[in-house]
């Protein structure tokens, strides 16, 4: 009984730490995105709250917390309230199988645990794909339950977009799974140790560079970010599926979008860029501090992808809806299928 209690306490502590880091990162991203966009557009960004505007995320959070929560007339109140939760919770659940650092085991109070991954399950990738699919229902239900034509159109667009690009995300990952021979993110990351030439984006027998490009583009579409933000296109649909939301319900959708950005960036770092592994063999720090280097490299890779989201938003215009669909089905899908075929042949001819 005591052992179960200790195990439960460690698991809850790990979940609390990971959630805290994710929410802190979301807070940093809300400021970083506005600053980066400001610099790219030759302006300063937020400057009023705190020195150099660094307290702006706290001001935004307080504003949303105290804002009046409005439910539109004619809305389905139950689904209207459920939708933001349905969007946020699956985005946060996905972090349970992400390895943030080296796969080491620590013994504390007689209980062994892995400090850098909450749960190393052997179907980690399937787990993430399954839960992120549920998140799309939050957007669709939010659009339908609002009793607004703008919200409904945003929800319908989101449904079509998710179906089109989620398929491409799944197919882009298959090449890595064929090479790794595992669905566990820990094992996939461990298989890429020994230098950047072992990362799956570059690795022999068939580098997954095409799968990487398909994954990155499809992930941007999955998270409804520019140039694929059709479900919330301001100039056409006001704010799309969350036009009628305000206060904390709006904040939940906002948190879900940024949490999904962090999640897809973590997956990209783990699957294609070696996860916590450095781009050179071994470590520069002493063996006892190697985990610091691993966590640092993982963080650098994740923030690289997050910066890419900002860069794309500042650079590219929004696609038309027919362009979005054509690009997904006629360009991304054939490339992803071709990559699987060639990778399967290469993996058969040159077994690792």
What's a concise summary of this model?
The protein has about 350 residues and is an all-alpha fold. The chain contains eleven helices and two strands, in the order H-H-H-E-E-H-H-H-H-H-H-H-H.
Give structural notes:
The chain has 352 residues and is mainly α. It contains eleven helices and two strands, in the order αααββαααααααα. The longest helix is centred in the N-terminal third of the chain and has 39 residues, at 2-40.
User: Strand order of the main beta sheet, please?
Assistant: 1-2
Q: How many runs of DSSP E, i.e. beta strands?
A: 2
Measured by DSSP, the beta-strand proportion falls in under 5%
- DSSP helical segment count: 11
The succession of helices and strands, N to C, reads HHHEEHHHHHHHH
| Main sheet makeup | 2 strands, antiparallel
Spatial gap, N to C terminus: 44 Å
Unreliable segments (pLDDT under 50, ≥5 consecutive)?
none
SSE diagram, text form:
Blueprint: H1 2-40, H2 56-66, H3 77-93, E1 106-108, E2 111-113, H4 124-145, H5 149-180, H6 185-190, H7 209-222, H8 234-237, H9 247-272, H10 290-315, H11 321-349
Antiparallel strand pairs: 1-2
Helix pairs in contact: 1-9, 1-10, 2-9, 3-4, 3-9, 4-5, 5-7, 5-11, 7-9, 7-11, 9-10
